[in-house]
Amino acid sequence: xxxxxxxxxxxxxxxxxxxxxxxxxxxxxxxxxxxxxxxxxxxxxxxxxxxxxxxxxxxxxxxxxxxxxxxxxxxxxxxxxxxxxxxxxxxxxxxxxxxxxxxxxxxxxxxxxxxxxxxxxxxxxxxxxxxxxxxxxxxxxxxxxxxxxxxxxxxxxxxxxxxxxxxxxxxxxxxxxxxxxxxxxxxxxxxxxxxxxxxxxxxxxxxxxxxxxxxxxxxxxxxxxxxxxxxxxxxxxxxxxxxxxxxxxxxxxxxxxxxxxxxxxxxxxxxxxxxxxxxxxxxxxxxxxxxxxxxxxxxxxxxxxxxxxxxxxxxxxxxxxxxxxxxxxxxxxxxxxxxxxxxxxxxxxxxxxxxxxxxxxxxxxxxxxxxxxxx
Length: 375
What we know:
Blueprint: H1 2-30, E1 46-52, H2 56-66, E2 74-81, H3 87-97, E3 101-106, H4 115-126, E4 131-135, E5 139-141, H5 146-157, E6 161-163, E7 166-168, H6 174-195, E8 207-210, H7 211-216, H8 232-238, E9 244-246, E10 254-256, H9 262-276, H10 281-307, H11 311-340, H12 348-368
Parallel strand pairs: 1-2, 1-4, 2-3, 6-9, 7-10
Antiparallel strand pairs: 4-8, 5-10, 6-8
């Protein structure tokens, strides 16, 4: 029994260190971010599209910020999705102040489609420009260079997708620390695989793609029935090694309002995990192998510590646990520095264990669930 447990532990350790050093480490330690914005060869128009439902307060803050973007040709198109608050009156008032603001008001959503995909599809169809940049009403770009940064791979390099980072506002409390940790880990996953030319997802808080490609693929065809997935599933279905770029500069990110209670947070994550079961099989495999080896690593390590009666084998296990924690800390530190401009990380081992428990409980529930909702 103990010999089998040791073999399991070493196998899981090998997989964990391979992912950390090779897959994630390559992006963390070798990716060189572009510090300065070079000469823009193509200053074509960009349509910033926001699907919003009962988001009047957020839109009142966001739209003036977007109008300050340092880019010559863009529009901000807000799709007001059957809101019952004062969103429509607010948007009408703001459109009189800002010429670049366009509005689409939805009165009815067909039963056979999901609300957010329908809203985005209508917005993209009536958008003026060929480069589409998506964000949410509760997001804020951190700099005036956001549009320029995020759209550059589409405009200048001919890419179909540009994947950006969407961070969350830092607030006091345990929930916020969990959100910060989970969001950064997710970014490490999709930026690392994107850097390895194997993109598998993006986040709708900060995502750019080509309008003609979206229309060519008939919008969210085959995805209409899935609540959520307007971002990660669309990227997962069509992103390739050659048509996708990652945008990893601190002035390209957005910051969103995080959930402030566990009920709302679990509802959000349930929707995300539910979408994950529709990923391509190869993407399920590469993510599942890391998550499974993560669980087995901790379970077997704890089992060996409980079963062993001498200090030497326990010291070996603790040494590997500590080494993995230090390597993970360095990767998180470096990636956060690349993406957000700050590298302060203080929660590695504790939140690593907490995330594992959260992932396998909430993730299983979300994966098996049949019904989820956007709002």
